[in-house]
């Protein structure tokens, strides 16, 4: 089974004089109606296309990080089985020189989140992460896994202990299991950011910051002050930093040769 | 109805199997797309699963677009 575009010839924004494009005279109505369809579907008609191939690839981590359990389709999720082959492809493809990681996540599966973090941390290419909106729970190690991290001024990161959502801890061993899992998250964050162990644990176990819960909600500037994130900034600064890192990597490569 | 419970929402209201099978990942011109089936031959794009920013610029694969799937006899290639 193959997939075919619906009816109209392919629109190529870089080549408006495409002979396959409907002419202005008799096909005008058709063009108009397909344009109206697009506006209804997308709220926009077109996006500008760049001519050359981008050397920066972008990994977006949104919604919940989905691990071993498949979440219902109404949830917006990032599936690690989708991300991991993409990270492998980024490492392998010589045309890709850097990776931009964009996070707006509420957290999710610890093992899946740590898997993504470890994959990104072990990439040989320059990586820059940026937290927009939120990078909560398991989003914290993912944000730290990049070589350089940014956080938007209004973005937040919630640091809290690992737990099973809403369910009661059954036996003392369950607690130990969760404690070990938490230790893996803590050690990853300490290894990949400038925050001290005491400070991170203090934020994680502090009371009174979150309503009826333990943990801390860290906002933009505070995340930088604690050493969790490198800098406050947006996409512009992140791309600039990534280009600097790519340049640095290239120069290093030249010396080796 | 107000529920006061420690149970997660999904445990109280289980999701129907059919809702999972409605969505699938297809490959279109080398780009992975998350699509929702509308009929036997039509599906709507929900998400572009790619790290290449260029793929998001393609008008044909913008989320919300409909793709029609047709079995092509003999030649197994994109029309």
Report on the structure:
The complex is a heterodimer of chains A (257) and B (79). Chain A has 257 residues and is of the alpha/beta class. Helices cover 41% and strands 23% of the residues of chain A. In chain A, strands 3-2-4-5-6-11 form a 6-stranded parallel beta sheet, sandwiched between helices. Residues 4-26 of chain A have low confidence and may be disordered. By secondary structure, chain B is mainly beta. Chain B has helices at residues 9-12, 17-21, and strands spanning 23-28, 31-37, 42-49, 66-70. In chain B, β2 (31-37) and β3 form a beta hairpin. Chain A binds chain B through residues 1-6, 10-11, 13, 38, 41-42, 46-50, 53-54, 56-59, 70-74, 82, 86, 89-90, 99, 165-168, and chain B through 6-8, 10, 15, 19-20, 22-23, 25-26, 28, 32, 42, 49-54, 56-57, 59-60, 62-72, 76-79. Chain A: Keywords: Hydrolase, Protease.
Write the layout of secondary structure elements.
The complex is a heterodimer of chains A (257) and B (79).
Chain A: E1 2-5, H1 28-42, E2 56-66, E3 77-79, H2 80-92, E4 98-108, H3 110-121, E5 127-135, H4 139-145, E6 148-151, E7 156-159, H5 172-192, H6 197-205, E8 207-210, E9 213-214, E10 216-219, H7 220-225, E11 231-232, H8 235-256
Parallel strand pairs in A: 2-3, 2-4, 4-5, 5-6, 6-11
Antiparallel strand pairs in A: 7-10, 8-9
Chain B: H1 9-12, H2 17-21, E1 23-28, E2 31-37, E3 42-49, E4 66-70
CATH homologous group name of the domain at 96-252 in chain A: 2-enoyl-CoA Hydratase, Chain A, domain 1
User: Which CATH C-level class of the domain at 96-252 in chain A is it?
Assistant: Alpha Beta
Radius of gyration of chain A: 23 Å
Overall pLDDT of chain B, averaged?
Answer: 82
Could you give a short account of the major beta sheet of chain B? 4 strands, antiparallel
What global shape of chain A is seen?
Answer: globular
Helix content of chain B: 10-25%
* Known CATH architecture of the domain at 96-252 in chain A: Alpha-Beta Complex
Indicate the structural class of chain B.
mainly beta
Give average pLDDT of chain A, whole number. Answer: 83
User: Which protein chains make the most extensive interface, counting residues with beta carbons within 8 Å of the other chain's beta carbons?
Assistant: A-B, 37 and 39 residues
Rg over CA atoms of chain B: 18 Å
Number of strands of chain B: 4
- List how many beta strands of chain A DSSP finds: 11
- What is the makeup of the main sheet of chain A? 6 strands, parallel
- Write down the secondary-structure element order of chain A: EHEEHEHEHEEHHEEEHEH
What does the overall shape of chain B look like? elongated
Beta content of chain B comes to: 25-35%
Order of helices and strands of chain B: HHEEEE
